[in-house]
Structures are given as structure tokens and as C-alpha cells.
Design goal:
Layout lengths: L1 H27 L18 E6 L2 E8 L7 E6 L13 H5 L3 E6 L17 H15 L5 E6 L1 H12 L4 E7 L10 H7 L2 H15 L2 H12 L5 H8 L7 H8 L17 E6 L7 H10 L5 E4 L6 H4 L1 H12 L2
Parallel strand pairs: 3-4, 3-5, 5-6, 6-7, 7-8
Antiparallel strand pairs: 1-2, 2-4
Helix pairs in contact: 3-4, 6-9
């Protein structure tokens, strides 16, 4: 009996030791050198940084090429950045609009802030504060892609008198469900470490990331697109920042009645990330909101089918 207890004790010690060793493996895998989010070699010639709500926000301002007739704010989707709107900006500036593209905190070249409130309503407050810094007291057209649609819709509900129009591109309001365990895991140092390793050694490799971008685009991305999306992933704590944004609890309720008359939906016909059926159901429920479908486009029609997207966008904000 004594021998059995000794064997059981040693087996328990070996099991615990083995588990500890396995859990320690991520800390023995070295991380590659990374760059600070504000590193000048990463930024654009017109990049600007402003501290808002104790977080450094990266944004770019594009001035109109003819007399100004309005302002447009463009907000990217999940893991996107100001780069996502590169094929739409000229159409707006050449039509007299001042264009502001911003990177949400922990994305693009904005600061990776882990204890910041990444809820749709706090992002919306930050975006309105940014617009006040750029052009105080003026009204805005708001354009959001995918996750960014949640932000612009929330902005419209918060401040309808300053909202001229809202264009949702392959996205609607979505408040990710997040229970305590999920939030705890996504905010844990251990999960952050695994995330950084996975990003550096798998997802951020050009051949692997090309497959992800191909899925989003519905077609093979060119070299410019691949480099443009990979750049922000070179930033220190890139994975940690993305995970932190997914661990946010929010009780905000979207009231579409306040924004329906100002909304336009533009959707890719072959979007596999947020299917067209999502937009169609919304349009059936709220027929006042026009829906423009771009044939053969995937989740990012503003990039892959700009020749179809830009006229829809411009026609709506020029109403």
C-alpha cells in the first residue's frame, strides 16, 4: 500500500511537472524584433498623431482639390487601417470633400492600449473628439467598413445633429458577446504570448497572410495590398492589441430609428465573412435604407471594386 502511494505521488509530480513544462514552452520561443507604432519608417507622409482619451491616435487628413463642400470620416474594419481606403480618397477630395481616415486604438499605427475601453460607444466618442480637433463645429459624412460600421452607426446615434450620412460597407452594428472567462483569457499574458508567436510565425508570413486576404477580397491581392496590411502587424504588441480589443464588455444598445434616414448599405455579392444575407435581412426589415450590391465582390469592395463602389459612395453623400 505504501509503495502504491509513493508511485501515485511520483506520478502526480511527473504529471504536474509535465503540464508546467508544456505551459512554459511559449516563453522559450523567442519573438522577433518589432517596431514602435510611431516609427517614422512605417508612417505615411501625411500621418498625424494626437492624444485623445489618453491614447495616441494615428490619422491622415486629405484636403479637397476644389473648394470645400463637406467632411468625410472613414473608419476601417478589423485589422484594417487608413490604408484600407486608398482607392476611395481621391474620388472624394476631387469632389470637394475633406477626408479624414483614422486608425482605431490597437490597429494600424495607433497606440496599442490594453486597458483602454474598446467598446463601440467609446470608439465613437473618440472619433467625435478627433473630428472636433480637426474641424470644430462642422458636420460629417461617416463611412465604416465591417467592424468600423459599428463605430459610425454608434456615432450617428450619439450625435445625429452632426451626422449628415452613414455608409456601412459590408458591416452593421455588432457588439461581440463576451463573458467573464473569455475576457479573462483574452486579457491574460499567457494568451497574449501565444498570440504574438502565432502572428509572427504563421499569420504574418506573406504566403499565409495572402490566403487570409484572398478570402476577404474574393480574389488574389496584389503586392501593394499585401504589404499594406502586413505593415501594422510589424508593430510591437500587434497580436496583444488585437486580442485586447476582442475582450471588451459593453451594454450599448443600437437604436436604428435615429439613423435609418441617413443610412446606405454597400455590400459585396460574394462576401463570405459577413454574407450578403445579413444586409438583405436588414433591408427587408428597414426598407427605407437603400442597399447597393456589388457583383462578384467579396468583403472589401471599396478596395477590389472601387470603380463600382466610388460612384455609389459619392452619389449618396452628394444627395
Amino acid at each position: 500500500m505504501k509503495n502504491f502511494k509513493k508511485i501515485l505521488k511520483w506520478l502526480s509530480l511527473i504529471l504536474v511537472g509535465g503540464i508546467c513544462l508544456i505551459l512554459a514552452i511559449p516563453y522559450f520561443i523567442p519573438l522577433k524584433p518589432t517596431l514602435d507604432y510611431s516609427e517614422s519608417s512605417l508612417l505615411f507622409p501625411n500621418s498625424k498623431m494626437d492624444k485623445i482619451q489618453d491614447v495616441n491616435v494615428h490619422y491622415r487628413v486629405f484636403e479637397p482639390t476644389i473648394p470645400k463642400k463637406g467632411n468625410v470620416l472613414m473608419i476601417h474594419g478589423f485589422s484594417g487601417s487608413t490604408f484600407s481606403w486608398r482607392k476611395n480618397i481621391d474620388t472624394l477630395t476631387q469632389s470637394g470633400f475633406q477626408v479624414v481616415c483614422m486608425d482605431l486604438p490597437s490597429f494600424g499605427f495607433s497606440e496599442r492600449k490594453f486597458n483602454w475601453n474598446h467598446s463601440p460607444e467609446n470608439r465613437a466618442k473618440l472619433a467625435w473628439e478627433l473630428t472636433e480637433k480637426i474641424t470644430p463645429y462642422e458636420n460629417w459624412h461617416l463611412i465604416g467598413h465591417s467592424m468600423g460600421a459599428s463605430v459610425v452607426l454608434t456615432m450617428g446615434q450619439m450625435n445625429p445633429q452632426k451626422t449628415l450620412s452613414i455608409i456601412c460597407v459590408d458591416g452593421l452594428f455588432f457588439n461581440p458577446p463576451s463573458n467573464f472567462l473569455t475576457r479573462w483569457l483574452l486579457n491574460s499574458h499567457y494568451v497574449h504570448r501565444i498570440g504574438e508567436i502565432a502572428l509572427q510565425r504563421y499569420f504574418a508570413k506573406p504566403d499565409k497572410f495572402q490566403k487570409i486576404l484572398t478570402s476577404a477580397y474574393g480574389q488574389t491581392p496584389d503586392e501593394e495590398a499585401l504589404k499594406g496590411y502586413l505593415k501594422p502587424l510589424m508593430v510591437t504588441d500587434a497580436a496583444k492589441g488585437i486580442l485586447a480589443t476582442s475582450a471588451q464588455k459593453s451594454d450599448f444598445q443600437m437604436d436604428y430609428s435615429k439613423v435609418l434616414s441617413k443610412m446606405l448599405l454597400i455590400w459585396g455579392e460574394k462576401d463570405t465573412w459577413i454574407p450578403l444575407s445579413v444586409a438583405q435581412k436588414f433591408h427587408e426589415k428597414y426598407s427605407i435604407v437603400p442597399l447597393k450590391v456589388i457583383p462578384n465582390a467579396g468583403h472589401c469592395p471599396m478596395e477590389t471594386h472601387e470603380n463600382k463602389f466610388n460612384p455609389f459612395m459619392l452619389e449618396f453623400i452628394n444627395r
